[in-house]
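Lecture notes, unit on protein representations.

Consider one protein chain, 250 amino acids long.
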Amino acid sequence: MTIRVCRAVVFMTLIIAGWLQRGIAPCQQPPAVNAPTQQPDQTAIIRRIDGAVAARVGDVLGFTDVEHFSVYRSGDETHPVAEMTVRDTYKKGVGKAFTVLSQSGSGLILHFGLKPLINNDVTINLPGNVEKSWFTSVNYDMKLKPGGIQRLNGRDCYVFAITPRAQAPNLIIGTLWADAKDGSLVQIEGAASKSPSAFAGTTRVMRQYSNLSGFAMAMHARAESTSMLFGQTVIMIDYSNYQLQLRGSK
C-alpha cells in the first residue's frame, strides 16, 4: 500500500468524521405514494424536524454502541483492505471516547486512515462543535420536494433538498428523508459541501437511521470518493448493540 493511497483514505476520513454520531451504495430514489392534492405545510414539517433533533439532544444523556469500519479500494467492495471494530461511548456535555475491539488489514490504512477518522470524530463531537453539524434549520436551508410522501425503509417520509448555511467537510448538499409522523431522520444523502483537500475529488455520503426508543440513531453509513489521482475509496460503517441512557431512566 503506497503512501499516496493512504493519503486518499485520510482525505476520506476527514469527510466521514463528522457523520458518525448522526449509519451499499447510495439508494435509488424511492417511489412516491399517494401524493396529497395539497402541498404539506413546509414550515410545520421543518419545526417537527427541529423538534425531533432537540428531543434527541435533550433526552439522550449518553449511549454506547459498536461500530464496524470497512475500507475498500479500486471498485472492489467485496474484499476490504482494512477493517476496524470499536466501542463508541458518548456522554452529553462531554463528547465521545472510542475503544478499539479488533482491527485487521493494511497497517498503513489503519494508522493513517481509520485512527485519524476516530480522532476527528472525537473533536467534532466536543461541546461547542457538535451543534454545528446537526440537521436542523439553523444549520441547513430546507426545501420540501414535490411529490408528496415517499416510502423508504418501511417508513412514510417527507423529502427535503438541503443546503448547508456554511461550508464544511462534514456538511452536505443533498437530500434528507424525515419521518412523516414525528420528523425524525430516516436517511440523508448527498455530496460534501467542502472538500478537505483538492486531491480528494468528489465525495458522496449516505447515512441511514433507525428509530430506537423514539430517537433517530445511525445504523449504516457509506462514503465514496473518486479522483483521477487516487482512484476510488469507499468507507462503510455499520452500527449495532446500542445502549441508550435516557433522561428519567434509572
